[in-house]
Amino acid sequence: MHIIETDTLKRYIPADLSECDSQQYIDMCDLLFKFHTHQISSDELLTHAVYKLMNMKPSKSSVEADELNKMGNISLIKELLEESFFEKIEIEGGYDLKVIQNYIDNPVPKFRPSWRTYYGPDEMFNNVKIGEYTDALKLFLKFNSTGELETLYEFVATLYRPKKPFHFIFKHLVNYDGDCRVKYNPNHVKKRIKSLKYAPIGFIYGVYLYFASVQIIISSGQIEWGDKTLDLSILFKSDEAPIAIDADDIGLDSIVFAMAESGAFGDYSKVKEAPFWDMMIKMYDSRIKHLQQKKLEEDAKSQQPS
To answer: What is the DSSP letter of 264?
Structure first.
């Protein structure tokens, strides 16, 4: 958290997206969407960010000295935000800004775009099922490649759902799954899109950025599981040379099918209902065993007389 203090005010502003409250996060993601879609420049992004985070409204002082002092302070805060919120990426003729994403808590766990409140993923996807995750991931990747807003709304509608009826009762039952949201049904996603279009783009794009942040941590970082530290990046690295095949990879769907065939979680429909982290740990364990077996085979081969 940054402390901004002048002769007339004192403000506490977040140092990055992880420190934003829900409204600050939505405001910042609105600006980031406009920046990423080339509606505003990096300088405009930083200027608007200062006003939003400082809870200020643009105004011009009639006293020139006061105006110069204010603009000088804004320039200093812009530099501060540029250093803490963004990573500078060198490009031809200068640099670009890449927002730092290092948060696992959902900054906007619930939102009410119209008459109904929708609830999203918990911290680090703790309430997400693997079927929901694979469907969301496909839409996430599709939006990455196409930039289609309709895909983005469908992505958010996959993750954000209404609360279960009589949740206040069900949450006390022994078989409660910890998820307040209604059960994921891909056939009901389209119904929520119409309502979500009333939400500000800052919320919609913010869900996308939160998902991206968790993806970055899962695919490149280490997580604590009990008393162990797991390096999940091994799930996203191949130990064999890729084979050129003229077809699209179905990605995690193939793992869901493989788990169904193994019977570890039941049939295909049961596997899709498995908690996301149960599946990730199972996949991690299988990968570790595969790598250990491969190492034993390589050691045995190297010890054979030539």
So the answer is: S
| CB distance 1 to 14 below 8 Å | yes
Q: For 58-104, write each residue's pLDDT tens digit.
A: 666 555 555 566 666 788 888 888 888 888 887 777 778 888 888 88
Written as six digits, the tokens of 221 are 């970082």
C-alpha 252/C-alpha 132 separation (Å) is: 11
111, with CB counted inside 10 A (0-12, 13-18, 19+), is buried
Place of tokens 């995750």: 133
Which helix (H) or strand (E) is 227 found in, with range?
A: none
Q: How far apart are CA 30 and CA 298, in angstroms?
A: 52
Instruction: Tell me how far apart the alpha carbons of residues 126 and 285 are, in angstroms, rounded to a whole number.
Output: 19
Say what the pTM is: 0.81
DSSP 115: S
Residue positions counted in the chain: 306
Of 97, 213, 30, give the one whose Cα is nearest residue 22.
30
- H/E/C letters for each residue in 43-72? HHHHHHHHHHHCCCCCCCCCCHHHHHHHHH
Task: Write out the two tokens for 191.
Answer: 């119904």
> Rounded to whole angstroms, how far apart are CA atoms 21 and 25?
6
3-state secondary structure of 110: strand
Look up residue 263 and give its two tokens: 């019977």
* Token digits of residue 214: 């968790």
